[in-house]
Amino acid sequence: MATRASTLPPGIEGDFTETSVGGNDSWLTYETTRWYTNAFIIQEGSPNKLLLGYKKRGFGAHLYNGFGGKVEAGESPAEAAARELKEECGIDAPLQHCGSLLFVTRGGPEWAFQIEIYRAEEYSGTLTETDEMRPEWFRYPNIADVTPSTDLAVTKENGESLPPIPYDTMWPDDVHWMPLLLAGRHFVGRADFELDNEGKYKMLRWWFGVPA
Length: 212
Ligand SMILES: COc1nc(N)nc2c1ncn2[C@H]1C[C@H](O)[C@@H](COP(=O)(O)OP(=O)(O)OP(=O)(O)O)O1
Fold this sequence. Notes:
ten-stranded mixed β-sheet, mainly beta, binds the ligand COc1nc(N)nc2c1ncn2[C@H]1C[C@H](O)[C@@H](COP(=O)(O)OP(=O)(O)OP(=O)(O)O)O1, globular, Nucleoside Triphosphate Pyrophosphohydrolase
């Protein structure tokens, strides 16, 4: 059951209804923020399809994610999202902003990641594997069956020919906001992580919500 948020994490401002909250650690402090983007192609049909990329190198290598990267000097986040989508998988799309996420890591990058999330239902061009990303389609359940806590990886679905969303090989925060993205909701969130000695990111505390 979603509840109106009375206490928001540092770095999140506005009037929100929280959809997923967890962890007992104190929120981490951070001094600088760097801006990033992440873009997803989402197509409702039989089956419903989500385009992800398998990251072959760099930050988040060997995980599936949307297509995106750093916002360069002089660019808006929307311009960066379009550029990264083209660079990483060869397509153009009418991207719409749908989410803002803040990630802070103890023992990892010393800056906080501010990631602007975009989505589109159509695209033009030919999906192309690049040296950074390998695009792949996944199926997801009908939106009517999706709630913020739906485990999309195990839900019985239509479209058996595509694999389900591969949460085991995605960032651990994704399962908390992916249902909102797929449902066409706007969302915000923050997650704090700890990078352990084996190079694994453990989520310490998280908060995700939608505009009230
Ligand atoms: C920590 O949780 C995260 N979850 C998700 N879903 N995505 C994340 C998380 N942390 C970072 N990201 C995303 C944000 C960006 O889309 C990429 C990282 O961008 P990258 O470092 O690859 O930026 P580029 O500009 O493409 O870098 P190079 O061209 O220098 O390789 O991960």
